[in-house]
Amino acid sequence: MTVRRRIAQLLFATGLLSLTTAPPAHSAGPRDDGRHVPLRVVSYNIHSGIGSDQVFDLRRTAETIRALDADVVGLQEVDSHWDARSEWRDVGRELAALLGMRFYFAPIYSLDPPAAGKPRREFGVAVLSRFPVVSTTNHEITRLSTQDPNPEPAPAPGFGEAVVRARGVDVHVYSTHLDYRGDPSVRRAQVADTRRIMAEDCDSRGRCPRQVLVGDFNAEPRAPELAPLWNELTDAVPQVGGPTFPATNPVKRIDYVTVSEGIGVRRSAVPETLASDHRPVVADLTVRRGN
To answer: 166, 287 in Cβ contact below 8 A?
Structure first.
């Protein structure tokens, strides 16, 4: 029995994790056949490491992610020395260390420290990877700041891109967190920005790399503001399944794994867990080699 499988069983027994529709362990999944690379991707809004019980427990967050046995994890609501709610800790970096994964952090906000000599207060998105990360970019998209009492939509960072080299194939992984407000106008602008930025990775002949966009979109799949995304991307979870929010008795799916041409979806799941106020999305993908 693998260590990961044993951890998953322990989480099931304690009620921290229930994978009623979970993908199988990696040992039972597809292998690299020379033409396609298997890749398990997770999107997870970790709520700064605070569970549905309002308790900050970073080890619980780490063990929940570990049980999902992912190759790549896109995280949202990641604190770095941000606030007392997460004990002023570097949440993403500590998770990476606990999981033995590579780490890239793309702050949305980077504010002065609370006192001289302290680290900057930062909050944003991140990517964890088992595979080498060969390049990273923190892109700007339209945002309506939560730190400004009178915000206006303006370009701001926090759209993270990490190029992951998975068994010799470069996959561009983007982690994003779209605006939460009821008015969809900022999300509409963010979707336009997202499509433009992802298109910039394509060459002059329109050939694009393998791309995976994950995140908390704060809108359901049929929301009009998300419709342009589906021109280039495929939603890994069927539209009729897998509500992700709130984690207890979820009523809507606002968390996503989406893929570009050249990437297939074998199966997906929305595991039941209370380690955050969101549930994660897990997708088993196959990445085609070559053009």
So the answer is: yes
Q: Rounded distance, CA 109 to CA 147, Å?
A: 8
Q: How far is CA 46 from CA 60, 79, 103, 132, 276, in A?
A: 11, 10, 15, 23, 5
Tell which residue, 62, 2, 70, 6, has the closest CA to residue 38. Answer: 70
Question: In the chain, what are the domains?
Answer: 3-21+36-288 (3.60.10.10)
Q: Let me know: does 199 contact 211? Beta carbons within 8 Å.
A: no
| Cβ pair 236, 184 in contact under 8 A | no
Under 8 Å CB-to-CB from 126, ≥6 apart: which residues?
Answer: 74, 75, 78, 92, 103, 104, 105, 106, 160, 175
Q: Compute φ and ψ for 209, nearest 5 degrees.
A: -70, 170
Return the SS3 of 195. helix
pLDDT bin (cut points 50, 70, 90) of residue 10 is: very low
Could you tell me the sign of the dihedral formed by the alpha carbons of 217, 218, 219, 221, in that order? positive
Residue 22 predicted with pLDDT over 70: no
Residues 119-139: tens digit of each pLDDT: 999 999 999 999 999 999 999
User: Are β-strands 234-235 and 121-129 bridged in parallel, bridged antiparallel, or unpaired?
Assistant: unpaired
Beta sheet of 133-143, edge-to-edge order: 133-143, 154-166, 169-177, 210-216, 255-259, 234-235
- pTM across the whole model: 0.90
Both structure tokens of 183? 């008015």
- pLDDT band at 291, cuts 50/70/90? low
